Amino acid sequence: MTEITFYTHADDPLDVARRIAAKAYGQGRQVMIYAPDTAVADAIDRLLWTTPTLGFVPHCRDDDALAGETPVLIGTRVDAVRSADVMINLDAGQPPGFARFERLVEIVGADDAAVEPGRARYRFYKARGYALTTHDLRQQAG
After folding, report:
1. What are the φ/ψ torsions at residue 87 (nearest 5 degrees)?
2. Shortest CA distance to 5 belongs to which of 88, 123, 124?
3. Closest to 21 (Cα-Cα) out of 54, 42, 48, 55
4. How far, in Å, CA of 77 to CA of 63, rounded?
5. Per residue in 36-63, pLDDT tens?
6. Are the beta carbons of 71 and 127 closer than 8 angstroms?
7. pLDDT tens per residue, range 4-32
């Protein structure tokens, strides 16, 4: 069953996603960054190209010709990944196909607009019997 981890109170959810993707890539894992919103997909794409300055996480869009050879994909085609290791959800709803991944990462922003959809996703997964882990990023910042 998919292991689901929530990171809550994220001041910068995209940076959290970038760090998690980089760590998973470093561990040899295949990553799907689920981002149906084009602006969000563009933003995480730029962030993966530019941060950190001396690092690089190989990535591309899920419809790119190199998607089958690339360890980190951005988009909505969950079937584009070779190995369903880690999915990072950058949408307000539950991503389709999440159950085929070993791990699902949910990042909930610190702003009020992100909290209720995050709580709804938490309730959705909990009601279906998934094991949930939560990391409050406020506690790690101090």
Report:
1. -115, 130
2. 88
3. 48
4. 8
5. 999 999 999 999 998 877 778 999 999 9
6. no
7. 999 999 999 999 999 999 999 999 999 99
For the chain, domains (ranges, CATH) are 3-104+111-127 (3.40.50.10110)
Contact 62, 80 (CB under 8 A): yes
Q: What is the pLDDT of residues 56-107, one digit of tens each?
A: 899 999 999 999 999 999 999 999 998 999 999 999 999 999 999 999 999 9
Write out the DSSP string of 9-56: EESSHHHHHHHHHHHHHHTT--EEEE--SHHHHHHHHHHHHHSSTT--
- Tokens for 50, please give them: 């530019």
Chain centroid, CA 78 distance in Å: 12
Instruction: Tell me the pTM.
Output: 0.95
